[in-house]
Specification:
With about 500 residues, this protein is an all-alpha fold. The protein has a domain of about 220 residues. The protein is about 75% helix and about 0% strand. It has a two-stranded antiparallel sheet with strand order 1-2. Helix 2 runs parallel beside helix 4 and helix 13 packs across helix 19. The longest helix is centred in the C-terminal third of the chain and has 32 residues. It is globular and about 70 Å long. It starts with a helix and ends in a 6-residue tail after the last helix.
Amino acid sequence: MGNQISLLLVVIPLIAAPIAAVLPRGRLPWLLACVVASVCAILAGVQLWNVLNEGTISYELGGWQPPWGIEYRIDALNAFVALIVAVIAAITLPYALLSAEQEIPEEKIPLFYSALLLCLTGLLGITQTGDIFNVFVFLEISSLASYALISLGKDRKAFTAAYQYLIMGTIGATFYLIGVGLIYSETGSLNMQDVANILPSVLHFRTVETGFAFIMIGIALKLALFPLHLWLPNAYTYAPSAVTVFLAATATKVAVYVMLRILFMLFPQGFAMTTPAEELFIVSGIAGIIIASVYAIYQSNIKRLLAYSSVAQVGYMVLGIGFASVAGVTASLIHLFNHALMKGALFMAIGAIIYRIGACRMEQIHGLGKAMPWTFGAIVVGGLSLIGVPGTAGFVSKWYLVSAAIEQQAWISVAVILFGSLLAVVYVGKLIEALYFKPVSDTGKAVREAPMLLLVPMYSLVFANLYFGLDTDLTVGVAQQAAAILGGIGQ
């Protein structure tokens, strides 16, 4: 049973997706999606426990031995990311009920949950497979579902955002597939473990170098790595609130995982992370942190503000990767986990505001913090974690990232990390000022606190931000073990 969990994590939501689509209108599709996401979260937790206690797990699909057959190969790295995706889904789906009923036409509700389950299938599949072509397949499943989910936003600009994401996502997927084809032409294999064993003997071929470049560009587009991030702000801004929560907390995290897997496990040490490549990652990370944070400061739409903040947070993760050290990758993995918590909580809080007033522009939320104190409290805690205040999960991320930079004597990177936190103070402070210290906006009706069905999932992430800011056994312990297995990292 332990070996089959990896398959069940993909098959269960995949089978449930078409069932949700044909269920009658009402709450049955939502209930099915909640049950499926909860089961996946439990299975992902058991899978991580098994990996930590028993080591790497391999499952051969159809009884075909790798490299001829497709293999699901689970170690601490992908089990950790799968847990993040599954738990976020299990928390987001209860939250989605009221939010979706308000923001999505009734006749499209079953299709909404079907697409959400397909997106979950694709993201979990990426984390489970040990086949580089299968990564592309699952990437496209999640991406196609994401395009549909974003287009369901009630603003007509959602169609434009979905179309822009479709174009950029298709380019990224095409680049990735071309790269996989070039690697296959030299190795004759698609199994990651087998390719990793063959590549050292063919590294001198230009085909391999070109394939590597295509794969990295494709992943960078999916990751929204600066300056290839232009699809993300509109996608997060105009998607339905529950979709924004789910994608912001999972999609870019899975792309970071794929980048780590390709950089440090598929290609041998000394090839992928040469000095120019390390500098490129560091420069891109630094630029993303500073420029995206500055853009966030000047946004009047709160979802767009947090979207640019997500681009900046991707910059922190890429900066850690650029250090090409165990400490740097550990910091990136910790931030990958913690950012899912903080940004999930923040987007849920903004979704609660949209539920009550139907808008999320700065000038429309003045004084709402007093009318919605619990929602305001979630924004404060999530904002403090985003800044990196001690006692929150965000502080742990920043601490390990600064430590990794100091280990490399990368003093400019240390300064940028601290400066990025100061910029976060500005845009988080701007949001808190509008909610609590500005005169109350005249909405024409009394505003009440968000319903419990929105507050309970929101506060599960709020408390997680506080808990994992104090107890780091899971996040740091698993991240260190995951970083240690990436064979291509320099010490």
